[in-house]
């Protein structure tokens, strides 16, 4: 083929280290905007970024030359640097080491967008742990529940 055509949609989910609920409502929208800009800087497309006090969801139109692992590494490193340089938390801010990445077809864009848009409402009924395990099960991702968040349960 003479050109590259692509359509890859990824929902990435990552948590604050130890799942500490420290993303404050007073600055969370600024953080989500920073993350969205970081995604766009890679040539990928930010569809929506949202979350709650202990984790973030990013819905991304992935550029095929960008590895998800490198994208997540950059987003997490640069956004935590921004939080620390802006002194938004009383102690050093860190993201948890891992992340989840789940792929969707074009027909799912609206539903995934609404799901991410309504995170605050969603988490009134379900914890992040429950949500994340449901994602892993829904997408058939093998996991060991004892180590899912980097600690023994």
TrEMBL record:
What GO annotations for molecular function exist for this entry? DNA binding; transposase activity
Q: Which GO terms describe its biological process?
A: DNA transposition
Domain of life of the organism encoding this protein: Bacteria
SMART domains given in the database record: Y1_Tnp
- What stretches pass through the bilayer? none
SUPFAM superfamilies cross-referenced by the UniProt entry: Transposase IS200-like (SSF143422)
Q: Where is the Transposase IS200-like domain?
A: 5-119
Report the NCBIfam families cross-referenced here. Answer: transpos_IS200 (NF033573)
Protein name per the record: IS200/IS605 family transposase
Protein's organism: Spirosoma foliorum
